[in-house]
Amino acid sequence: MMAILDQTDLKKSCLANTVLQEVLIEKTSSALWKRLKTLYTTKSLAKCLVLKQRLFTFRMNEGELFKDHISKFITLLNDLMNVEV
Predict the structure, then answer these.
(1) pLDDT band, residue 33 (cuts 50/70/90)
(2) Name one Pfam family in it (predicted).
(3) pLDDT-derived band at 21, boundaries 50, 70, 90
C-alpha cells in the first residue's frame, strides 16, 4: 500500500530546520518555491565576495577523501557561476 504524505510532512522531510522555519507558512508549492528563490538566489556583492574568498582559501583537509574534496570544489564553482562572477 502506498502511503500518501501530508504536504507538511513532506516539507519537513526535505528541508533543514533552519530552512523549514522560513517557508513553513507557505500554503502552496508555488509560493514555497518563490520564497526559496528569494531567500537563496540573491546576487549581492557580499555573496560574491564571500564566494571568492572561499575559492581563494579552498584547501583539502587532512584525512578528507579526494572525491569529497572535488565535490565541494565543484559545488563552489557552481555557486560562483550562479552569481555570475
Answers:
(1) confident
(2) Retrotran_gag_2
(3) confident
How far apart (Å, rounded) are the C-alpha atoms in residues 55 and 80?
A: 9
CA separation for the pair 68, 19 (Å, rounded): 24
Grid cell locating 17: 530546520
Q: How many CB atoms lie within 10 A of CB 76?
A: 14
Q: Which residue has the cell 528569494?
A: 38
Tell me the whole-structure pTM to 2 decimals.
0.51
CA 7 to chain centre: 21
